[in-house]
Amino acid sequence: MTESLPVVHDERMESGPTRFKDLCLDALDVRAVAPFWAGALGLEVEYRDGDAVLRGPEEGQALWLNTVPDPKTTKDRVHLDLHTDSIETLVGLGATIAPVQDDADRWTVLLDPEGNELCGFVRERDPMPAYKAYEMVVDSADPVRIGQWWADVLGVELHHEDGKDWTWLESVPGFPMEGWVFGLVPEPKTVKNRLHWDVYGDVAELEASGATRLWDMPRWTVLADPEGNEFCVFPH
Fold it and tell me: 0.85 exceeded by the pTM?
């Protein structure tokens, strides 16, 4: 009989660095918004007991659509920027062009079928990327402070240009987009974010870093970052 090898316990296998997992969007009518987001992002739809998940082939390319009873009441503090071959393509999928635009912007602000904001960036690319999410943008009271908090949590560098009122992250572990942006806004957060992100991580470590525990679920824990943005933490 051969001698059994000792069991090596490595805490890193249990905790590990915080890593992006996926996105979740609240919806009054999942079947009204699912076809739009599937087409706009280049994902496949799977309906699940009144909810839905949209998936792509690569890590992080997932958007969960969760049915909620409360309608959208204010501007979303988290939105997506999308690659598109034309604004008409997004309108054809079900978006509407927002009534107020800044002519100096390189993008067009649109609303999904339930009024959630998104920005379309027209690209002259051949071929267009299969997954069309370009950036995630988070409204912030202090983009440097909250951006640095997430940079530290995720183990990446915070980028910032002098004179600009936004910061951004690149090469976030598991994140399938080019940038994670924190932009300055004057208004405070007043309601739960309709679009939020999930991560793999250690709840105790995130709380020690400054996150606030909101509530516990059977498979995940809901936390808020230092500016109150909700995110769900799943064990590695």
Answer: yes
pLDDT digits (tens, 9 = 90+) for 178-188: 999 999 999 99
Q: Domain locations in the chain? A: 11-234
The tens digit of pLDDT for each residue in 18-59 reads: 999 999 999 999 999 999 999 999 999 999 999 999 999 999
Residue 115 has pLDDT above 70, yes or no: yes
- CATH domain 11-234 topology: 2,3-Dihydroxybiphenyl 1,2-Dioxygenase; domain 1 (3.10.180)
Beta strand ranges found along 123-173 (DSSP E): 133-140, 158-160, 166-169
Cα–Cα distances (Å) from 126 to 38, 40, 81, 113, in that order, read: 20, 17, 19, 28
Q: Note the residue count of the chain.
A: 236
Cβ–Cβ under 8 Å, residues 216 and 130: no
Tell me the two tokens of residue 19.
């890593």
Secondary structure tally for the chain: helices H, strands E: 4, 16
Six-digit token pair at 2? 């051969």
- Which residue from 182, 107, 179 is spatially nearest to 140, judged by alpha carbons? 182
Residue 160 in tokens: 């910032």
- Specify the residue for token string 């007043």: 190
Q: Which residues on neighbouring strands pair with residue 160, listed in sequence order?
A: 167
